[in-house]
Design brief:
The complex is a heterodimer of chains A (269) and B (333).
Chain A (H helix, E strand, L loop, with lengths): L13 H22 L1 H4 L1 H22 L1 E2 L2 E2 H31 L4 H4 L5 H30 L7 H25 L3 H17 L12 H7 L3 H14 L6 H25 L6
Antiparallel strand pairs in A: 1-2
Helix pairs in contact in A: 1-6, 3-4, 3-6, 4-6, 4-7, 4-8, 4-10, 6-7, 6-11, 7-10, 7-11, 10-11
Chain B lengths: L3 E9 L5 E10 L4 E5 L6 H8 L7 E6 L2 E2 L4 H6 L1 E4 L11 H11 L4 H14 L15 H13 L5 E5 L7 H16 L3 E5 L3 H7 L2 E6 L2 E7 H6 L3 E8 L13 E6 L2 E7 L4 H10 L4 E6 L3 H10 L33
Parallel strand pairs in B: 3-8, 3-9, 6-7, 7-8
Antiparallel strand pairs in B: 1-2, 1-4, 4-5, 9-10, 11-13, 11-14, 12-13
The chains are: A mainly alpha (269), B alpha/beta (333).
């Protein structure tokens, strides 16, 4: 310990601090996803493979046509979207709650990064994992069925917005969670049922009218159908309304996360 | 402009605990400043508010003139913090931890890698840079937190018990390192339970107790104000009772150990002369506690500020008073 540190002026350009800080959070999140790939990427790929084998190849043969398409073709966009949803949500809730639990969230809280940069960094990390796993599941689906692409921009926009919404949802869950039970509670009791009833495996036209109306309240129905529209060109919902809802939800969740961080909810006394 | 300026800071936690009760504190730039206090005195809360880990209830704080309410980002850019509790990701490597920390302060990655090498080498962690941090020893983890705090080369370094659990050799080498950093202009605020550490390193001191600053002075002035010291004498022959030494308080600790309180104005020759006259032979002698510890205990136990009224150096605040008047750290008094 012979040399010394120089006292230096603080960074004057706070925009540079924000940009590099944002990149750092994203790089760190990406590093985490890759470092523990057996927990972050592989499970969804295995699950999607099982769905294709059981629901697609075995049961799907009996189902026949759904929405005018082979059943495997019909469920492929839904299964991809399901992996995007669970992974974007799971990444942020696990990573941010882990940072709270291990106290290393303080590394960011004491830094000059404003809260909106921290939220944006974690949300982007969630989006990266959601899209990475989504891409992997897409590759798996190609082993079982042919995927046509009708509107590539719709696919990208729906995938991105959905990943962002659930990444932000995961962030809010992590902010409020006080223990690991509370981290698992929402994915198990809210997210999974909404996903399964969100038109991943079926068209809501199969449902009685009251159940169809109820399904429109489920935001995941709009996401899955927008995504499916990009691939197959068919949808149970109005695509314009679906994108408007997704954009509004993303903006509202981002604002809520930043406001809660500014208040110190779950991170400061 | 001071490195730190705190006015009327209060904090009441949601459970009703009043951790700070109107703290005023000034720390001059370039200072090596000790913030001492017993457990629960409010040290960590005060540091938490300055670093925005704790929401304040009232009052204001400025770091190099930047108000933490209005210019929080600029204020935080000036601060490096070494917290009391380990707070890095135990599953990451030291190299990754310090490089990422630099990124949070806007240091480009290429520069961060260079600095990581510099500080990890200085803190003798370079050989372990690729190890998972969980496997580092306690001392290494502490040094890693110092390296991390230095990555953006802060103007104000706050160390909250940085040497807790560190062996004496490493502790002394850390002292040397901190002295050098301070010598180059970095203001350092140190909290520690090793009072010898504070006495050795710091030029100015504040003692906080019950959420209030109860003493604030130059270290040298404060130590001069200690007018009573307790000496422990190791005796050749056993005694059954403490000897009667007029003008002194003598206590027999065990049959071969005698404690004597000696006022600063009295010389030790007189005591030895009296003991010799009584046929008591002293083999060795030591201070019961170090000087700062003596002062500290008097203040936090509410036994009065040392030297109060005895040497004309009024304490900045009396124990238990409603907040001390802020004094300029480093200013000649």
């Amino acid at each position: 310990m012979s040399s010394v540190a120089q006292a230096a002026a603080p960074p004057v350009n706070l925009n540079v601090v924000r940009w590099i800080g944002f990149q750092t959070i994203v790089i760190r999140e990406y590093g985490r996803i890759i470092r523990i790939w057996g927990q972050t990427i592989v499970p969804s790929v295995v699950t999607a493979t099982l769905y294709f084998v059981i629901f697609g190849s075995l049961i799907g043969r009996r189902v026949g046509v759904m929405g005018g398409f082979d059943y495997k073709q019909y469920i492929a966009p839904g299964l991809i979207m399901m992996s995007v949803i669970t992974n974007s949500y799971g990444n942020v809730v696990a990573s941010f709650f882990g940072a709270k639990f291990g106290k290393h969230v303080e590394e960011m809280l004491v830094s000059p990064l404003p809260n909106w940069v921290i939220v944006a960094g974690y949300a982007t990390g969630g989006v990266v994992r959601g899209l990475l796993v989504g891409a992997a599941v897409t590759v798996v689906s190609l082993l079982f069925t042919h995927l046509q692409v009708q509107h590539v921009l719709v696919i990208l926009a729906a995938g991105l917005l959905t990943a962002l919404i659930f990444a932000l949802g995961g962030f809010l869950n992590a902010l409020f969670a006080k223990n690991f039970d509370q981290v698992n509670w929402i994915p198990t009791f809210i997210l999974t049922p909404l996903t399964y009833f969100g038109g991943v495996f079926y068209s809501i036209t199969l449902l009685p009218p009251w159940a169809q109306q109820l399904s429109y309240v489920n935001p995941i129905l709009h996401m899955v159908n927008a995504f499916r529209f990009g691939f197959l060109g068919v949808s149970d919902v109005n695509i314009g309304i679906a994108f408007a809802l997704m954009a509004a939800a993303a903006a509202a969740l981002f604002a809520a996360a930043v406001a809660l961080m500014n208040r110190g909810t779950g991170i400061r006394e | 402009m001071n490195a730190l300026s705190v006015r009327g800071l209060t904090k009441t936690y949601s459970n009703g605990v009043q951790a700070l009760r109107g703290v005023d504190l000034e720390v001059e730039r370039g200072d090596f400043f000790a913030l001492l206090g017993p457990n629960g005195a409010g040290k960590t809360t005060l540091i938490g508010i300055i670093t925005s880990l704790v929401n304040k209830t009232a009052g204001e704080a400025r770091v190099f003139g930047y108000d933490i309410d209005r210019e929080l980002e600029a204020a935080k850019a000036c601060i490096g913090i070494v917290p009391q509790e380990l707070n890095f990701n135990m599953f990451e490597t030291p190299f990754t931890i310090v490089v990422n920390q630099a990124g949070f302060y806007g240091i480009p990655r290429a520069v961060a890698r260079e600095r990581a090498e510099k500080y990890l080498k200085q803190l003798q962690l370079w050989d372990r840079r690729k190890s998972i941090s969980r496997g580092l020893s306690g001392g290494m983890k502490r040094r890693l937190m110092i390296a991390r705090a230095l990555m953006h080369e802060p103007r104000l370094l706050i160390l909250d018990e940085p040497t807790a659990g560190v062996d004496i050799e490493i502790r002394r080498s850390m002292w040397e390192f901190l002295r050098e950093i301070n010598g180059r202009g970095t203001t350092i605020i140190l909290t520690t339970h090793y009072l010898e550490e504070a006495e050795t390193l710091c030029r100015n001191i504040a003692i906080i107790n019950g959420g209030r600053i109860v003493e604030r002075d130059r270290m040298s002035s404060l130590l001069r104000r200690l007018h009573v010291q307790t000496f422990v004498l190791n005796l050749r022959d056993s005694l059954t009772a403490a000897p009667q030494l007029e003008g002194y308080v003598a206590t027999l600790v065990d049959d071969h150990t005698l404690e004597i309180e000696v006022s600063k104005e009295e010389n030790l020759n007189e005591i030895f002369a009296r003991l010799s006259a009584l046929g008591i032979e002293v083999l060795s002698m030591r201070n019961k506690v170090n000087r700062l510890e003596e002062i500290f205990m008097r203040l936090v136990e509410g036994r009065g500020a040392p030297g109060e009224g005895a040497h004309g150096e009024a304490a900045a605040a009396q124990p238990g008073s409603a907040g001390a008047a802020p004094l300029q750290a480093g200013a000649p008094r």
